Amino acid sequence: MSTTESKEFLLKEFEKLDEEGQRKILDYVKRLSSAKGDTNSKTPKSLRGALRKYKNKDLRQKENGAWASAVKEKHENS
């Protein structure tokens, strides 16, 4: 579906709503628009920044052989 087709579809569906439904949709869109333009948001710009607080440097040494160790432990008595 092209962008034009999508817009036409949404407009037709919007017109099917009663006045109350249209008002709710417009209010929702306004809230989304204002939230998007909020430059003072504390949302990190990358996932790396968001997860930085969970970093555990002590576990980094164990990461290299973690998968091999887990497989060996699981199938040790097989």
Characterise this structure:
This protein has helices at residues 3-16, 19-36, 47-51, 60-63, 66-75. Helices cover 65% and strands 0% of the residues. With 78 residues, the protein is an all-alpha fold. It has a domain at 1-38. The mean pLDDT is 82.
**Could you tell me the number of beta strands?**
0
Q: C-alpha Rg, in Å?
A: 25 Å
* Sheet with the most strands, sense and barrel status: none
Report how far the terminal alpha carbons are from each other: 54 Å
Order of helices and strands: HHHHH
Global geometry? elongated
Give helix % range: 55-70%
Instruction: List unreliable stretches of 5+ residues.
Output: none
The helix count comes to 5
Coarse structural class: mainly alpha
Write down the overall mean pLDDT: 82
Percent in strands: under 5%
Provide keyphrases for this structure.
78 residues; mainly alpha; 5 helices; 65% helix
Describe the structure concisely.
With 78 residues, the protein is mostly helical.
Produce the secondary structure layout.
Layout lengths: L2 H14 L2 H18 L10 H5 L8 H4 L2 H10 L3
